[in-house]
Amino acid sequence: MDQIVINDSSHLKGQVKIEGSKNAVLPILAATILASNDQSVITNVPLLSDFYIMKSVLESLNLKTQLNESKNEIVVDATGELTHEAPFELVTKMRASIVVMGPLVARTGYAKISLPGGCAIGERPIDLHLKGLEKLGVKIEDHGDFIEAFAKNGLIGNNINLDFPSVGATQNILMAATLADGITVISNAAKEPEIIDLINFLNKMGAKIIGKGTSTLTITGVSSLLGVTHNVVQDRIEAGTFMVAGAIGNNDIKILDAIKEHNEPLIDVLIKMGASVSFEEDGIRVKGNYELKSINVETEPYPGFPTDMQSQVTVLQALSDGQSQMKENVFENRFMHMQELNKMGVNFRQEGNTIKINGSTHLKGAEVDATDLRAAASLIIAGLNASGKTVVNNLKYLDRGYFKFHKKLSDLGANIQRISK
Ligand code: EPZ
Question: What is the pLDDT, as a whole number, of residue 116?
Answer without folding.
Answer: 67
